[in-house]
Amino acid sequence: MKLYHNQLTVRILGTVMGVGFLAMSAFALFGGENLDAYTQDRAYGFAFAAFVGGVWAIGVSWLDSDLGGVWCKPPKPLARFKRQ
């Protein structure tokens, strides 16, 4: 396994997003107090999905050599339209 350090801004932003998903996962697990069984089951399902997404975002941000196909590139500036 090799950690890559090119495109550092995109990698850090991907890591921040992954940490946000992990925080949502923790809140879904521990944030609700008196929930019925159905709502608690749904919260656990969301927590699992958010945890997987957070781990994936952090892992891919540092382990993939080229992030061009993973995280979206900013759009190119529009060319000026020619009047016809």
The rough form would be described as elongated
Largest sheet: none
Distance between the termini: 55 Å
What's the total number of strands? 0
**Number of helical elements:** 2
Looking at how many chains there are and whether they match, the oligomeric state comes to: single chain
Query: What's the rounded overall pLDDT mean?
Result: 83
The fraction of residues in strands falls at under 5%
Gyration radius (Cα, Å) is 19 Å
Order of helices and strands: HH
Portion of residues within helices: 55-70%
Give start-end ranges of low-pLDDT stretches.
none
Structural class comes to mainly alpha
Would you kindly provide a written description of the structure presented here, covering whatever features stand out?
The chain is mostly helical. The chain has a domain at 8-65. Helices cover 60% and strands 0% of the residues. It has 2 helices and no strands. It has helices at 8-30, 37-63. Helix 1 (8-30) packs antiparallel against helix 2 (37-63).
Compact summary:
The protein has 84 residues and is an all-alpha fold. 60% of the residues lie in helices and 0% in strands.
What distinguishing features does this structure have?
2 helices, 84 residues, mainly alpha, elongated, 0% strand, single chain
